[in-house]
Amino acid sequence: MRRFPSIKKNREFQNIYHEARSYANRLLVMYVKKRDGEGSRIGVSCSKKIGNSVVRHTVTRRLREIFRLNRERLATGADIIVVVRRNAETASYQDLEKAYLELCGRHHIILLN
User: Fold this and answer.
1) Strands 41-45 and 21-24
2) Burial, 13: exposed, middle or buried (Cβ in 10 Å; 0-12, 13-18, 19+)?
3) CATH class of 10-106
4) Which H or E run includes 79?
5) pLDDT tens across 10-22, in order?
């Protein structure tokens, strides 16, 4: 079983925060940095301001699933960090997916089919 392509190290998060471009909507903030290598990776940052651990992990799991299902539509070689905003706490899966794809479109990393 292959590992999920995620960004885990603090050093990688900080590097992307400082060098990447960001766009935001009412649910999410997305940082994207192009990188060499195959495949895209995702990191999710969800503050304690969002809610308790159950709420935070629910939102994080939803975002990872959205990434997994739409991975083939993304340009390869991108590191993506998604910062969850307070409104995402009560958002549905469909709202999160729409917000995620909108930000991917703004970053020009989604391929048109």
Assistant:
1) unpaired
2) middle
3) alpha beta
4) strand 78-84
5) 999 999 999 999 9
